[in-house]
Design a protein that fits this description.
- Chain A is built from nine helices and ten strands.
- With 272 residues, chain A is of the alpha/beta class.
- Chain A folds into two domains: 124 residues, 2-Layer Sandwich (Nucleotidyltransferase, domain 5), CATH 3.30.420; 143 residues, ATPase, nucleotide binding domain (Nucleotidyltransferase, domain 5), CATH 3.30.420.40.
- In chain A, 53% of the residues are buried.
- By secondary structure, chain B is an alpha/beta fold.
- Chain B is 35% helix and 20% strand.
- Chain B contains eight helices and twelve strands.
- Chain B has a five-stranded mixed sheet with strand order 3-2-1-4-5.
- The longest helix of chain B is centred in the middle third of the chain and has 23 residues.
- The two termini of chain B are 36 Å apart.
- Classes of the chains: A alpha/beta (272), B alpha/beta (318).
- At the A-B interface, helix 5 of A face helix 5 of B.
């Protein structure tokens, strides 16, 4: 039995996935990033092997993607996260024509053609507004874990409008609103709304076409999903493994390479 | 004797200056603005009175400035910080024409004329890149206080480039640099160089005209001053010892004094405090949209009551 791996080294978390020869996910792992991207990638690889109950020698091809893809020393090939996210999204939702990926430090909108190829993309990686880091600021200011932000925001009855664009200033603004007596859920809903409108304008830049698949860590946030559906005016596909979209896409590229007869350099060494 | 007070309620610090009719500074006070700028203004005013050993009733006139200027109920008037910085710089350096003020949450470039009137200005208060917050965040990651930034960066021998524009992303970049073994002072110097570059960009947009002056708390940061001077290839005029951060408050006190002198000269009394003008109790740090003066566009002109009024200047008028 032959297996392939996809490693997605993002800005905030490293994700690893192992697929079998049929493209079925047999193992996955996720780790918070550490300062050294190379070791983070190695550790997530160990974890995913353990999760799949396999040895490194069982993996015939590894594709690395994400912002730290060139730091993955054991990778056989690097593929951009744009291609990988598109590939992963189409694999799970074949009707996908637009992908919105909200990550920890960047937001990508990808337009996909009828045969699943990337037609266009727009990316915000220059400014933290409209990325996961904006929620990170809320989490910091409210002293609340990220996973609790969405459910709490959904309890809001009258959202506060967040007027600042900059994440740094938004932190101050949140505290200012709280000091004035606004409820945390109303302030949070305002934060979510701010991200949703910014992301929606990014999607419109590549052209909005159904179906839309929402991926990345922020897609686990229910309030974000609800708001984006409202702002974009259509339902979103959200996978249960949305955080692994990039890694799954990378692993699928690895599988292509295996079918094309290419093998991992590590394995070649072993044969010699 | 006339005593006037200028209070500059900034996004990060609230500063106050008390001045007498000889234009001598009687006392100064500084506090962090915190989340209740109105309360900070009251405490700073109390500190100022205590420092000067003056009773409240002896103060003739109070002028407020900064983004929290409308939040002080005991003010006689409020003046934009642009006017205050311009006046104060023109008082110290009559030859100065372009002023840079790097604040905690915004950055201003102001071009003034020979009488200290604002001719053009540009403001960035939308994005923390290029404001003091950028340095503060970098320093926080390196475990430094704001006062340490300058001396620390001066130890740098070769700075590392900070390529991120966003202050939030710069943080991650700092961590990466640290983990790859780059010395903290070189990272700090990199952040200062990046900020200086952005500040000079803003100055160029109002039109660089020498002499240059720097106002605000950044005047205490020798590394920042050096980086700016290197980028401008010209010296910067710095307000006298300790007055850099107080520049806006100094300008407010000075303008207050002039107004009192004029009222007295006209034989009129000082109106009771209470503050005229719109009371914007909504607390927001974002106030202005950026605009610049040209011959046809509205320009900020100081009107009789001290407001910056927007007036269209006819062509040919000086």
């Amino acid at each position: 039995m032959e297996y392939v791996a996809g490693i997605d080294v993002g800005s905030t978390q490293a994700k690893g996935v192992i697929l079998d020869g049929q493209g079925t996910v047999v193992g996955k792992a996720i780790l918070d990033m550490e300062t050294n991207m190379g070791t983070a990638a190695e550790r997530v690889f160990e974890r995913v092997l353990a999760n799949a109950n396999l040895y490194a020698s069982d993996i015939v091809f590894t594709v690395a993607t994400g912002y730290g893809r060139y730091r993955v020393t054991f990778g056989d090939l690097q593929v951009t996260e744009i291609s990988c996210h598109a590939r992963g999204a189409v694999a799970e939702f074949p009707g996908t024509r637009t992908v919105l990926d909200i990550g920890g430090q960047d937001t990508k909108a990808i337009r996909i053609g009828d045969s699943g190829e990337v037609v266009d993309f727009a990316m915000n990686d220059k400014c933290a507004a409209g990325t996961g880091r904006f929620l990170g600021a809320a989490s910091f200011a409210l002293e609340m874990p990220l996973s609790e932000l969405g459910p709490l925001a959904l309890k809001s009855t009258k959202p506060v409008k967040i007027t600042t664009t900059c994440t740094v200033f938004a932190e101050t603004e949140i505290i200012g609103h709280l000091a004035k007596g606004h409820l945390p859920e109303d302030v949070l809903m305002g934060m979510h709304h701010s991200i949703a409108t910014r992301c929606a304008s990014l999607v419109r830049r590549v052209g909005l076409a159904p179906e839309i698949t929402f991926s990345g860590g922020v897609s686990r946030n229910q309030a974000m999903v609800v708001l984006l559906q409202e702002v974009l005016g259509m339902p979103l596909n959200v996978s249960a493994q949305a955080q692994f979209m990039g890694a799954i896409g990378a692993a699928l590229y690895a599988l292509d390479n295996v079918y094309a007869g290419r093998r991992s350099s590590h394995e070649k060494e072993a044969v010699q | 004797m006339i005593l006037t007070v200028g209070i500059d309620i900034g996004s990060t610090y609230t500063k106050a200056v008390m001045m007498d009719e000889t234009r001598q500074i009687r006392a100064t006070a500084i506090r962090r603005s915190g989340y209740k700028p109105a309360a900070a203004a009251t405490s700073v005013y109390d500190d100022l009175l205590a420092n000067a050993g003056v009773a409240k009733k002896d103060v003739n006139y109070i002028a407020t400035s900064g983004y929290g200027r409308y939040m002080v109920p005991f003010r006689h008037t409020q003046i934009t910080e642009l006017t205050c910085h311009a006046l104060a710089v023109a008082y110290h350096f009559p030859q100065a024409r372009t002023i840079l003020d790097i604040g905690g949450q915004d950055i201003k470039a102001i071009r003034i004329d020979d009488r200290g009137r604002v001719r053009a200005f540009r403001l960035n208060d939308k994005c923390a890149a290029g404001t003091g917050a950028f340095l503060e965040k970098t320093a926080r990651y390196l475990g430094l206080t704001t006062a340490d930034i300058g001396p620390y960066a001066l130890r740098s021998t070769k700075f590392v480039e900070i390529s991120s524009v966003c202050a939030v992303f710069a943080e991650s970049e700092v961590i990466n640099h640290l983990s790859s073994g780059i010395a903290p002072e070189d990272i700090m110097q990199g952040a200062i160089t990046a900020l200086a570059g952005r500040a000079v960009q803003l100055m160029k947009r109002v039109g660089l005209e020498n002499d240059y002056a720097l106002a605000g708390g950044m005047t205490q940061n020798a590394a920042m001053v050096a980086a700016l001077e290197a980028n401008l290839a010209a010296p910067l005029n710095l307000p006298p010892q300790g007055l850099g951060q107080l520049n806006g408050a100094f300008g407010a006190a000075l303008l207050g004094l002039r107004r009192v002198e004029r009222l007295y000269a006209e034989g009129r009394d000082i109106p009771p405090p209470g503050g005229e003008g719109p009371d914007t109790t909504v607390h927001t740090t974002r106030r202005w949209s950026v605009f610049i003066q040209s011959a046809k566009q509205p320009v900020p002109v100081e009107s009789k009551n001290g407001f910056i009024a927007l007036k269209t200047v006819r062509k040919g008028r000086k």
